[in-house]
Design goal:
The complex is a heterodimer of chains A (193) and B (362).
Chain A lengths: L1 H4 L2 H9 L7 E5 L3 H13 L7 E3 L9 H21 L4 E6 L7 H12 L10 E4 L5 H8 L19 H10 L10 H9 L5
Parallel strand pairs in A: 1-2, 1-3, 3-4
Helix pairs in contact in A: 3-7, 4-5, 6-7
Chain B lengths: L1 E7 L7 E3 L4 E6 L5 H16 L4 H4 L14 E9 L2 E12 L4 E11 L2 E6 L2 E5 L7 E4 L13 H11 L2 E3 L9 E2 L13 H11 L1 H14 L3 E8 L5 E9 L2 E6 L5 H15 L6 E5 L7 H18 L2 E5 L3 H11 E6 L5 E5 L10 H6 L6
Parallel strand pairs in B: 3-16, 3-17, 10-15, 15-16
Antiparallel strand pairs in B: 1-2, 1-4, 4-5, 5-6, 6-7, 7-8, 8-9, 11-13, 12-13, 13-14, 17-18
Helix pairs in contact in B: 1-3, 5-6, 6-7
The chains are: A alpha/beta (193), B alpha+beta (362).
């Protein structure tokens, strides 16, 4: 589906990492692993550390991270819009779907913005791994996983750089057996073109 | 990497135990032993790994004031690839006037054990129950002189633990020789860099690339001869078609500080070393903190380095306190204990807000 949606030229751009030259990319994430994954992806896409600007990471446990991202999302979007009016700016939001559907997280984020909804041409990327970011990392590392099992406590830190590199490679296009939530995440990265 | 540190009867440390992670942020109010921790580690490295005399690096007056105890105890555990090491040093005053000596020293790891007590050392190798016995001067560590290969591996790792309290003020431009031993404050940066340039040209390339991202107009460093064996370190900046040479000592404090921070990343952390950096946020501008923090984390991840930061800066707290933070805590003037950082359990406050509001202790 995604393969059809991308023209050859666009696929080439994504694969080569020739994304639009943003001067700042904010990242709003639930935890350090999500942040590391996105950062490694952005390096692959050709961005340097000075462009990447992570929002604070939350404390607490048991759903505090998901609450944190939703609570801070409107302010992050407002910050993006203010800066985007003057310079190319993007926002990448990472929030686990957990046991909910990806669509429910999208609606929750949309509801948090109220009337000022995310527009199609805004560089606001939602990455919503189901069930967790660890699911994506393991899948991208070639492990057989599903989106229902809890892999949150798996030791995956050493896999992150290679997994993020594959995430970047899969934007042109993903394989047929790509996890549904990961396919949606890859589609979201088109907002960075 | 360093997996455990135990200190007893040294300044504010009484039966203090800490198990650091590969990435760690130490938080704590003033007077909670953060600098003392660096001093203890530095002294331990000098004595146990570099063979310095105990009394040159430890003082009787450093013993914990409220304890009526003669012995000071230091223990280190480390994981080096697939080998675990456990080291223990007990120092105690002896003779008249009393001088600090090694009372007992033991190390086990790499299937080897060394015991040193009352001036007698014994090394027990893997498949030989008969130890090698020899006499040693108890004013120095037995580990520092052993020729046993497995123990020497630990000693080399220990010697590589580096504590940094960077001070740009005394840093000059003169490099009178190549210096392979950087000072804790990096006052000898020019001489150290002269050594690094010869030894690590590949790492130097990555180092310069990061500086180009961080210092507007920076291009490279050059060392220019200035008399017999003396060289002057210059930073070269590009402005249009002009190349402008500025002596290292003429750079701003912040520029010199930032250069040192990136040097630690590329020449120490990238070698898989363990580094402890006190207040890395000093002197540098706000926009430079996050890129440096991301870089040191990436390099530590890629090269299995261990990074321990001591900081109060909100930018660092907000990234590292929740995932990697520990707090050093003292009740009044009592002993230090260490606890994991307690962020906001409800997840609405940033780590910096928690610390600034004093809620981390409530």
């Amino acid at each position: 589906m995604i393969q059809k949606a991308l023209s050859p030229r666009r696929r080439s751009s994504l694969a080569d990492g020739i994304l639009t030259r943003f001067s700042k990319i904010f990242i709003l994430a639930e935890d350090a692993r999500q942040l590391l994954f996105v950062r490694r992806y952005l390096y692959r896409a050709g961005f340097q550390t000075h462009v990447i600007d992570p929002e604070p990471l939350p404390g607490g446990t048991g759903g505090a991270g998901e609450h944190w991202v939703r609570a801070r999302y409107p302010a992050a979007v407002e910050k993006l819009r203010k800066r985007a009016a003057k310079a190319k700016t993007a926002l990448i939001v990472v929030i686990d779907a957990d046991t909910d559907e990806v669509g429910r997280r999208v609606r929750q984020l949309s509801d948090a913005l109220g009337r000022s909804v995310r527009k199609d041409d805004e560089a606001i990327v939602h990455l919503i791994p189901k069930r967790h970011i660890e699911t994506w990392i393991l899948h991208l590392s070639g492990e057989e996983v599903d989106e229902e099992t809890d892999y949150h406590h798996e030791s995956v830190d050493d896999l992150i750089p290679a997994a993020a590199a594959k995430f970047h490679a899969w934007t042109s296009p993903p394989p047929d057996d790509c996890l549904p939530s990961l396919s949606v995440g890859i589609e979201e990265t088109k907002r960075l073109i | 990497m360093l997996t455990r540190l135990y200190i007893d009867n040294f300044r504010c440390f009484e039966k203090f135990e800490w198990r650091p992670g590969r990435k760690q942020l130490i938080l704590g109010r003033n007077g909670t032993g953060k600098s003392s921790l660096m001093d203890a580690l530095e002294s331990l490295v000098e004595v146990a790994a570099r063979g310095e005399r105990v009394e040159e690096w430890f003082e009787l007056s450093q013993r914990t004031r409220w304890l009526d105890q003669s012995e000071e105890v230091f223990e280190i555990e480390a994981q080096l690839e697939n080998k675990s090491y456990s080291y223990r040093l007990v120092i105690d005053p002896a003779g008249r006037p009393p001088r600090l000596m090694v009372k007992r020293e033991t190390i086990s790891g790499g299937d080897t054990r060394l015991e040193f007590e009352n001036g007698k050392a014994a090394v027990y190798p893997l498949d030989d129950e008969t130890p090698s016995l020899y006499d040693l001067d108890p004013s120095r560590s037995a580990l520092s002189t052993t020729g046993n290969t497995a123990l020497a591996e630990f000693r080399e790792w220990l010697a590589g633990i580096s504590c940094w309290h960077i001070n740009p003020v005394p840093m000059g431009s003169r490099a009178e020789a190549e210096d392979s031993a950087p000072g804790v404050d990096l006052a000898n940066f020019a001489a150290w860099y002269r050594h690094l340039l010869q030894e690590y040209p590949k790492e130097n390339g990555a180092f310069l690339q990061d500086l180009r991202e961080s210092l507007d107009g920076f291009d490279q460093f050059v060392l220019i001869d200035a008399g017999e064996n003396v060289q002057i370190l210059y930073a070269v900046f590009v402005r249009g078609a002009m190349h402008i040479r500025i002596a290292y000592g003429e750079l701003s404090d912040g520029q010199r500080y930032l250069i040192c921070l990136y040097a630690i990343i590329h020449f120490v952390v990238a070698k898989g070393g363990t580094v402890i950096i006190d207040e890395p946020d000093n002197f540098i501008s706000l926009r430079e903190i996050q890129p440096w923090l991301m870089r040191i984390e990436d390099i530590a991840d890629d090269h299995k380095g261990q990074v321990i930061l001591i900081s109060h800066h909100p930018e660092i707290l907000n990234q590292w306190a929740n995932p990697y933070g520990v707090q050093f805590i003292r009740d009044g003037a009592g002993p230090v204990r260490v606890e994991s950082f307690k962020g906001d359990p409800e997840g609405s406050l940033t780590a910096a807000e928690v610390v600034a509001g004093g809620w981390d202790f409530d």
